[in-house]
Amino acid sequence: MRELTCILCPSGCQLQISKSNGEWTVNGNLCPRGEVYAVDEMINPKRIVCSTIKTIYPAVPRLPVKTSQKIPKEDIFPVMKVINQVRLDHPVRRGEVIVAKVLGTGADIVATADLYYLLEEEGING
Amino acid sequence: MRAIKAYDTIVIGGGPAGLAAALSAFEAGAETLMIEREKRLGGILKQCIHDGFGIIRFNQALTGPEYAGWYIEMVKKRGIPLLTKTFVTEIEQRGDGFRLSLVNSSEGLYQVISKSIVLANGCRERTARQIFIHGSRPAGVYTAGTAQYLVNILGYLPTKRCVILGSGDIGLIMARRLTLEGAKVVGVYEAKATPSGLERNIVQCLDDYDIPLKLSHTITRIIGEDRVEAVEVSRVDQTMSPLKGTEQVIECDGVILSVGLIPENELAESLGVRIDPRSGGPYVDQSFMTGIPGVFSCGNALTVSDLVDYVSETGKYAGASAASFVKDLPAQELIPIEKNEADFLYLIPQCFNINAVEQRLILYFRSRENRENVQVKVLADHQVIYQQRYQKLIPPEMKRIEIDSCPKPLNGIRDLRVEMEEGAKCES
Q1: Backbone angles phi, psi at B151, to 5 degrees
Q2: Within its chain, how far is the Cα of B421 from the centroid?
Q3: Which of B51, B106, B372 is the best residue to mutate to test the A interface, defined by the most A CB atoms within 10 Å of its own CB?
Q4: Which fold has domain B1-124+260-329?
Q5: Which chain A residues are within 8 Å of B37, Cβ to Cβ?
Q6: A10 and B307: CB-CB below 8 Å?
Q7: Within 10 Å of residue B424's Cβ, how many Cβ atoms?
Q8: Distance separating alpha carbons of residues B422 and B29, to the nearest angstrom
Q9: B333-428, what's its fold?
């Protein structure tokens, strides 16, 4: 049996997970998402990666981004490498895809802020 | 002379609390003005690029900019009057309202008046001086929020190898963030025996990256003249005094401080608003009105929250209350909400207006110590109106109670109290 802390919400449930006859049993979860999380943690732990990308705009030098879905933990640093190579040369809206299907993970790198708005606040027309 | 503009409600602060307050005041029909000292709305959420915001409010994990983005779009869509890059220097109570002195680069110094005010000023980080780190001032000592600003907004990496002092959530988030950007985080050192941040952040920010968390440890010396070269860390005893002989020198070029947040209440204090030393913010009633009629408080200025969802919620109700205050003046008749100080670190609201007819009552509290299997009861005139069992209460996690349909009318009650008692032993 293994003990885990669920990271999906602030409740931070203490989960107990064990395997018998190829079946996982999860205890301690207050909601069904905890069960999925626990099994994922045992088989293939995944995380959303949040970071920033460079822009060409001196007034807004960085734009926040995230992966559109969770990616395997071992892909985090390779994906960071891709994120750090991007240099955005045009305004984007929140949710716009910056890098599609990054490293074959199935996740896109998407903007989490509206660069049009950020530039407008700086008095720059994108 | 220019005519002085008059408003029903002025919201000071354009972070998550102020955005929610301005929206609800405006939607309640008040002539609303929002004032923000920075260029952009969103407050601290602008730099909180990690996800996990809005699980309660939006039922999904958003990043800080996404969470703020939703509110900013709503404020823009509604066309709520807004002043950015504008600082409130003074508030003066006069007659049936308030006169605010503002300063900005387009108008200079000028004044506006308002019938009600929502204080949504947020909070500030505790600094090195406030935790008695003295001596020479080498470069490389940053509060976690400053480091976060440097990395996420400006794109600078302020350290290549650092030690984090304090296990507050921003410190944990920055441990991960700096690691992702290629810095080495040697460890997180916490003087207390228990972490200050949320358990999930310890898991996803420290454990995921094998960053050690050293409880009952603190920095006893920062070494370096122009730049941090190393720190000396020591174990501490239960009274947080460093233990001789446990010193250890760790080479690093940066120290990140995550040692607490303090509500910002200079404007409130200048008005004579009474501050609760436990919560760090004003004493308020259930409408989030302070002891001065017409002045409301919300968000991290009211008390430092661990969840932005609660910041928005207090903002929403404070804004709506400020708007309704203007329309119908309910005379304030307050009774204290009684609690055992040994059980509760604090409880908000601290008092209850018995003249209010609103039957909804929302309470936020933190336990003073780690508690297991306790029952929290709310009693009105000695009759239990709400009870909830908690398997675990820990001070880092603020709890919320909502009583939306009371079994008895709350207006006119003479006694309101919240009690915490050991529950029956857990059936395992």
Answers
A1: -75, -50
A2: 27
A3: B51
A4: FAD/NAD(P)-binding domain (3.50.50)
A5: none
A6: yes
A7: 8
A8: 46
A9: Immunoglobulin-like (2.60.40)
* Candidates A6, A8, A112; nearest CB to B63: A112
**What does the block give as tokens for B213?**
């968390």
Strands B62-63 and B213-215: unpaired
In this predicted structure, what is the pLDDT of residue B420? 95
CB contact under 8 A, A66 and B51: yes
All CATH 3.50.50.60 domain ranges in chain B, comma separated = 1-124+260-329, 127-259
Residues from chain A contacting residue B155 (CB–CB below 8 Å)? 52, 54, 61-62
SS3 labels along chain B: CCCCEEEEEEEECCCHHHHHHHHHHHHCCCCEEEECCCCCCCHHHHCCCCEEECCCCCCCCEEHHHHHHHHHHHHHHHCCCEECCCEEEEEEEECCEEEEEEEECCCEEEEEEEEEEEECCCEEECCCHHHCCCCCCCECEEEHHHHHHHHHHHCCCCCCEEEEECCCHHHHHHHHHHHHCCCEEEEEEECCCCCCCCHHHHHHHHHHHCCCEEECEEEEEEECCCECCEEEEEEECCCCCECCCCCEEEECCEEEECCCEEECCHHHHHCCCCECCCCCCECCCCCCECCCCCEEECHHHCCCCCCHHHHHHHHHHHHHHHHHHHHCCCCCCEEEEEECCCCEEEEECCEEECCCCCCCEEEEEEECCCEEEEEEEEEECCEEEEEEEEEEECCCCCEEEEECCCCCCCCCCCCEEEEEEECCCCCC
Domain borders along chain A are 2-43, 50-121
How far is residue B208's CA from residue B348's CA, in Å, rounded to a whole number? 35
pLDDT in tens, A36-89: 999 998 999 999 999 999 999 999 999 999 999 999 999 999 999 999 999 999
User: Is it true that domain B127-259 has CATH number 3.40.1170.10?
Assistant: no
The angle formed by the CA atoms of residues A99, A105 and A108, to the nearest 5 degrees, is: 30
B265-276 pLDDT tens trace: 999 999 999 999
pLDDT at residue A125, as a whole number: 63
Q: What residue ranges of chain B are covered by domains with CATH 2.60.40?
A: 333-428
Distances in whole angstroms, Cα of residue A5 to Cα of each of A13, A14, A105, B316: 6, 5, 25, 32
pLDDT digits (tens, 9 = 90+) for B278-322: 999 999 999 999 999 999 999 999 999 989 999 999 999 999 999
Burial of B289 (0-12, 13-18, 19+ CB in 10 A): buried
| Residue B1 confidence (pLDDT) above 70 | no
Q: Are B389 and B309 in contact (CB under 8 A)?
A: no
Could you give the ipTM of this predicted complex? Answer: 0.92
Which residue from A10, A61, A76 is facing B154, i.e. has the nearest CB? A61
CATH architecture under which domain A50-121 falls: Roll (3.10)
The pLDDT assigned to A10 comes to 75
